[in-house]
Amino acid sequence: MVNVANDRTGSGLDLLGTTMTPGELPPQIPDTLAEPELRALAGQLIAALRREDEVHRSLLSIVVAGGSLADLCEALAALMETVVMITTTDGRVIAQAGDSAAIEEAAATSAFDPTGRFLVEHEMVGERSGDADWVRRATVRIIGGSGVEGRIVAFAKDRALSRNDIHLLERSATVAALAIAREQAVTAVESKYRAEFLRDALAGRAGSTAEAIAHADSLGWTLTDRMVVVVAETDENDTFTHRDSEEVRALQQRFARAWIRAVGARDRRVPVMGFSQEIVALLPLPPEMATEKIMAIVTDLARIVRGDGGGGRRTFSTGVSRPITAIESLPMAYAEALRAAAVGRQKHGAGAITHFDELGIYRLLSLVPDSEELRQFVTDALGELATDDSPENADLRLTLAVLIDTNLNVAEASRLLFFHYNTLRYRIAKLERILGPFTTDPQLRLTLALALKVLEMRGLAQSRRSAPHT
Questions:
Q1: Where is the PucR C-terminal helix-turn-helix domain (predicted)?
Q2: Of 1, 97, 356, 399, which cross-links 340 as Cys (Cβ 3.0–4.6 Å)?
């Protein structure tokens, strides 16, 4: 007797103990099968194909009826009795469905990084083999008109996922591509008007307060009485890049989507938009929220967007303005956030997150457009200590900085530097031979203090051997 039965998903058959997907010929059908048995086999094959077609049509009808990716996930999770997730190309989960406990269990597997990003760069696509946990998840690509648009991932709790499950996911991926294309088309139109409004608001052209609030509300945004401007810029300068324009555009769109989703997870009505070189968000603030709390929120958002840096993600620096209480102050706050991002990158390197109030004297130093002029200032002030040609130079600069910061309190500086009092006295004498009488000349101390601050800004501390010719 020939045993032919649909598998649990209805997407394939198990013929004589061998898994078979629709469209695949049965392996070595025994010659001893009688005509009635062959007819029965053919009938069940046709029924399985019809069942698969019905599943595909039901999923397609969800999208045609205006359903979202979340609706598609729910339907697929019910059909497969698994957790189903849809991710972006870089692994950020944008829709999921299934038992809540099973979702948490899936998110705790090695397939995700601590920020919740699915590790697309490590997870294989299609059928897999190995230990039980490994084969209980399966991934397929969502291919759209512009290439790979994302992934569909299934997690089973108590069974291995088969080729039939993979086949159903692949059929579902074509439906998901249609849903993504529709969402992108709608988003593109909405983004155009949102970007125009936000650009006008940041330039002070949004009209009166009442007009700006009403316009923002019509776009699904809320402008509050107290907010900060947050600017995120990729550390890679796209003006000078080896990448082609299409790749740059795709990377910037991915960067913008990541910020929009991260901010939207907290509050979908927060204005956030991606421009050609940056992301801008207007974060609402409760009355009297402290700077530390503001920075904690921004740091958490940046952590979510950054993930572990995988999946083709680029590093970025973030600047935060002072709080404002009037829409008319948006241009000023925007300039502050831009300045904070740029100076933070110069001072701390890639990935810096900087509040405008942290800049201090760096606000003024960053206004000097010619970095070569700043280098010359450092060289004139610090002389041979301006370079790292000698290992001792950095050590002497640290001693000088601590002395200036402690207002020439030798005892306190000795304690901070872990030097004997007489050792520090010897170093002070050496510094004065190189720099001049800074212990008695307040103007010289000011010059040296500024030179040390300039030197802290990245890209300015070069040795004479590597410095560009002037």
A1: 397-454
A2: 356
Residue pair 152/79 in contact by the 8 Å Cβ criterion:
no
Q: Quote the distance between the C-alpha of residue 48 and its chain's center.
A: 43
What domain range is 177 assigned to?
69-185
Note whether 80 and 56 are same-domain residues: no
Report the run of H or E that residue 48 belongs to, with start and end. Answer: helix 35-64
d(CA 219, CA 211): 13
| CA separation for the pair 188, 341 (Å, rounded) | 27
What does pTM read for this prediction?
A: 0.65
Amino acid at 107: A
Tell me how many domains the chain contains.
4
Token pair belonging to 123: 């997870």
Together in a domain, 231 and 351: yes
Share in percent of the chain as helix, strand, coil (round to 5)? 50, 15, 35
Reported residue count of the chain is: 470
Mean pLDDT by 10 residues, the chain (470 residues): 36 40 46 65 67 71 80 87 90 90 88 87 73 70 83 87 82 86 79 91 92 93 93 86 82 88 90 91 91 94 84 87 94 93 87 91 74 84 87 89 92 90 91 93 92 75 35
> Are 293 and 326 part of one and the same domain?
yes
| Residue 338 within any structural domain of the chain | yes
In the block, which residue shows the tokens 């200032």?
377
Specify the amino acid at residue 16: L
CA distance linking residue 354 with residue 375, whole number of Å:
24
CB neighbourhood size of 372 (10 A): 12
Backbone angles phi, psi at 274, to 5 degrees: -105, 135
Return the closest-CA partner of residue 153 out of 198, 115, 197, 111: 111
Whether 360 and 387 share a structural domain = no
What CATH number should be reported for the domain holding residue 94? 3.30.450.40
Instruction: Judge contact between 84 and 154, C-beta under 8 A.
Output: yes
The one-letter amino acid at 457? M
Query: Is residue 209 in some structural domain?
Result: no
Q: Is residue 382 part of a domain?
A: yes
